[in-house]
Amino acid sequence: xxxxxxxxxxxxxxxxxxxxxxxxxxxxxxxxxxxxxxxxxxxxxxxxxxxxxxxxxxxxxxxxxxxxxxxxxxxxxxxxxxxxxxxxxxxxxxxxxxxxxxxxxxxxxxxxxxxxxxxxxxxxxxxxxxxxxxxxxxxxxxxxxxxxxxxxxxxxxxxxxxxxxxxxxxxxxxxxxxxxxxxxxxxxxxxxxxxxxxxxxxxxxxxxxxxxxxxxxxxxxxxxxxxxxxxxxxxxxxxxxxxxxxxxxxxxxxxxxxxxxxxxxxxxxxxxxxxxxxxxxxxxxxxxxxxxxxxxxx
Length: 298
Prior knowledge:
The protein has a single domain (2-289), classed as L-arginine/glycine Amidinotransferase, Chain A (5-stranded Propeller), CATH 3.75.10.10. It is built from 11 helices and 14 strands. The protein has helices at residues 11-14, 28-48, 90-93, 98-105, 128-131, 151-161, 202-214, 224-228, 250-255, 258-265, 276-282, and strands at residues 2-3, 56-57, 74-76, 81-84, 112-115, 132-135, 140-144, 164-168, 185-187, 191-194, 218-221, 235-238, 244-249, 269-273. The strands form 5 sheets. The chain has a 3-stranded mixed sheet, with no helix packed on it. It has a 3-stranded mixed sheet with strand order 6-7-8, sandwiched between helices. Strands 9-10-11 form a 3-stranded mixed sheet, sandwiched between helices. Helix 2 packs across helix 11 (276-282). The mean pLDDT is 96.
């Protein structure tokens, strides 16, 4: 997780992020202060359950308003591979900091780094585990295509990793493409939370349901309104003794119905924390704030 130095509203990303808003009476300094408070409280809650959290401090220069969302520019894999990704917004490209990678290298074995960011000059973008939902157990990658999730880049990812792609075209209530797959879908070891309303093509919906059935995932559907409250932006993690937790924001938790909570609790303990400033001005939520590390430990 990256503790932000200059969190704030990024006009460059707001064009295709319908979850991001600039309204309100908070000054930039107040937004930054509240974001830091939310971040620190979130980390404390994670650590209190025994979940190991590595915190990297964002650098003051250059200013990076979205640094709190590292999962978009980097992913870590079981075979010692690190992949860094091509980002749509030029300001977000500044988030790729070698200092963060060096911090990881001190504790984990890194065999290779793949530089997908080289494709930015061609206008091809793939924003990490925002664009892609990885089923690491079954080697499936689920991806909703958008400006930030290019089919050619997805194919390149599959060529290099051996994953099989399940591709679809999710749209929001206004018919606009959803900017990141991970705001409408969360994949756990034995379940999937998904807003199937966003998948308008019946053939694509059937493709998803078949893949979920084949891999033994219970489907827990959420509505468009719940998706807008970031109920699709969760992440399942384990603590040091192997206990499973489903991490989500307070807003996302409050949007869930009792039946959905009971369904989720059959698979994992729920851990939620309030991050309203980060959600409102950043347009991302709990899952976006975590880049999970699967590298072998030294």
